[in-house]
Design goal:
The complex is a heterodimer of chains A (134) and B (167). Chain A is of the alpha/beta class and 134 residues long. Chain A has a domain of 86 residues: Response regulator (Rossmann fold). Chain A is built from 5 helices and 5 strands; from the N terminus they run βαβαβαβαβα. In chain A, strands 2-1-3-4-5 form a 5-stranded parallel β-sheet, sandwiched between helices. In chain A, strand 4, helix 4 and strand 5 form a beta-alpha-beta unit. In chain A, helix 2 packs parallel to helix 3. Chain B has a single domain, classed as HPT domain (Four Helix Bundle (Hemerythrin (Met), subunit A), Up-down Bundle). Chain B is built from 7 helices and no strands. With 167 residues, chain B is an all-alpha fold. The chains are: A alpha/beta (134), B mainly alpha (167). At the A-B interface, helix 1, helix 4, strand 5 and helix 5 of A face helix 1, helix 2 and helix 7 of B.
């Protein structure tokens, strides 16, 4: 499916290397409006600020295990906020445990991908998320 | 994306090396604290969380050996955070110190492009040592940030599970 290239995306990861890799993949996939935060505690105010400014993020790709605020806590904050409770959220993690997937789904994640992953896998995840959203 | 062998991706690989080196220093500090008090569960868990950050990025750039090391260290760190036997914890801290030192050398070898340097580190012998140590914790269930017992699964299984859960 074709998504607009200026989809406003927030990439949240405490490893700069991971943010760069994900950003590079997103650029490869044709996206050009990509923002970064180094953990949930930086991402959450950014999400609220952009919402208040009338230009909310349209997609969040977040790591799970981060100091400050974890990805799962960031997700819970998003889901608990009426104006953005449906914000598409992809959890990226090194955790390949069934219980983690269940926890993430129970918390309202739209999809879940385990590191390492390819640009193709990321594309498939994004397509699944936005197809289900329609 | 095979980043580690792609000359166009050198900047990302260099960034990874620099970032990982900083985290190894954090790990040294955590291990110093653990040397003083091996039963400090919070620090042992902290070790697992820091090493998890290196692991994800290492695997993503294709630094498989570093990724494998980190995976084993993370497993040992989380499991060790759940035991109180002092002699075993002292061994854990000593092995993790050595492992961290080896990680620094492996990362330096990647940054400088010294593939022969990496080969000479004899990392496989150390992996065997880490595996032996992780076996000591066989009875401990929790091996990650997960709150409930582990069941390691692959991306395909995760996708099936997500489908079953309605996604």
């Amino acid at each position: 499916m074709e998504l607009k290239s200026d989809l406003k995306i927030l990439v949240v990861d405490d490893m700069g290397t991971m943010r760069k890799i994900i950003k590079k993949m997103l650029v490869q996939l044709g996206f050009n409006n990509i923002h970064e935060a180094q953990d949930g505690s930086e991402a959450w105010p950014m999400i609220k600020t952009h919402l208040a400014e009338g230009a909310p993020f349209e997609f969040v790709i977040s790591d799970w295990n981060m100091p400050g605020m974890t990805g799962i806590d960031l997700l819970k904050n998003v889901r608990a906020t009426a104006e953005i409770h449906g914000l598409p959220f992809l959890m990226v993690t090194a955790e390949a445990e069934q219980s983690n997937v269940v926890t993430a789904v129970q918390s309202g994640v739209n999809n879940y991908v385990v590191k390492p992953f390819s640009a193709q896998t990321l594309k498939e995840k994004i397509n699944t998320i936005f197809s289900n959203k329609k | 994306m095979n980043i580690i062998n792609d000359p166009d991706m050198k900047e990302i690989v260099d960034d990874f090396c620099d970032e990982a080196m900083k985290l190894y220093l954090e790990l040294d500090s955590v291990l110093d604290n653990l040397e003083d008090d091996p039963r400090n569960q919070k620090e042992m868990e902290n070790f697992g969380q820091i090493i998890d950050r290196v692991m994800g990025a290492a695997k993503s750039i294709g630094a498989e050996e570093i990724g494998k090391f980190c995976e084993l260290e993370k497993l040992i760190g989380y499991k060790a955070s759940q035991v109180t036997e002092l002699p075993l914890l002292e061994v854990v801290v000593a092995v993790l110190f050595d492992a961290n030192d080896l990680l620094k050398r492996m990362t330096k070898a990647i940054k400088t492009g010294e593939s022969k340097g990496l080969e000479s580190l004899n990392t496989q012998a150390f992996v065997t040592r880490l595996k032996w140590l992780s076996e000591k914790f066989k009875s401990i269930e929790r091996s990650s940030v997960a709150a409930t017992p582990k069941q390691q699964i692959g991306q395909a299984d995760i996708d099936n599970l997500l489908q079953d859960l309605g996604l």
